[in-house]
Description:
single chain; alpha/beta; DNA polymerase, domain 1; TIM Barrel; 10-stranded mixed sheet; two-stranded antiparallel sheet; globular
Amino acid sequence: MDKDLKNKSFGESLEIATEHKQKSFCGKYLFEFIHQKNVNIIDDITPLSKLFRSQLIETGFLISKIDLLEQHDDPDGTIKFVFGLQGGTRIESVRLKDGDRNTLCISTQAGCRMGCKFCATGQLEFQRNLTAAEIVDQVYQAERLCGRIDNLVYMGMGEPLDNFDNVMRSVEILNDKHGRNIGIRHITISTCGLPEEIKQLALSPIRPRLAVSLHAPDDVIRAKIMRVGKKYHITEILESLKKYQGATGKRVTIEYCMIDGVNDQIGHAHSLTRLLRPLKVNVNLIELNPFPGCRYSASSPGQIQQFAKVLSDSGIETVIRFKRGRSIKAACGQLGATWLK
Ligand code: SF4
């Protein structure tokens, strides 16, 4: 049995209390102290009786914590945190500042199995899935250092839907009104497009926003730059997005990394427009961010502008994302870049 109290949902915390012959409000204290007050020591949950606290400790319950190893600040306000997990694994999270609002980009896996060729994380060896506790603790640790996090994007290291259960558990915990209470509209999961898991997400009781990294206007180009492109056709992904939109009514963000001479031609923009027309989407165009050993280079600003114009003229809301955190290797696709040989 998993003994980490930080992994437990609100309902499970109540059950732990009643299983120990305590009133259910003791479970509420457990959840609130861990997820609102960032308490990491069972004995510090002082509203609980001494007897209950020692019972929890004696039966092996604990509250896990990730360790801040490094903090890197970019002049543009971006901060990269390097966290150490149990067993010596390292992951990174990024705080982005927009006016007085903080967005945190969090990791869900150490390494990634998807192997996208324009992404530093994809070049690292996959180590393991993160637990829900390790995912939510990135938020709590960042908040200690830079204040309340308003928006969360599951867009850091790893493919969130490849760690579906732990990711959805972390969303449930972060969204719970007895804990951090981050509104579901302020939580976005970004996937490279796993059709079955997208359909599963559509049926889930908690449905965060969805962003899909498409990055190509056809299967041939996609398979060239994304290993997952060899497994799933774009039509399968779009079909799953229709199901998601049918169930949720939510707009989906399409992420598109602009790679010089690969996917950035005007003809590609027209093909992309035709693909996306049946869906309710907005498109983020991202200039490729380099990392050591990356075989691709970024499209020119002029090429990106022209590409964006084709999409916008056809009625697709399109935004060119600014480069953020490049000097500290915290920009999109750069997480883990400093660990590449
Ligand atoms: S882009 Fe995302 S899915 Fe692809 S390798 Fe990087 S972290 Fe994994």
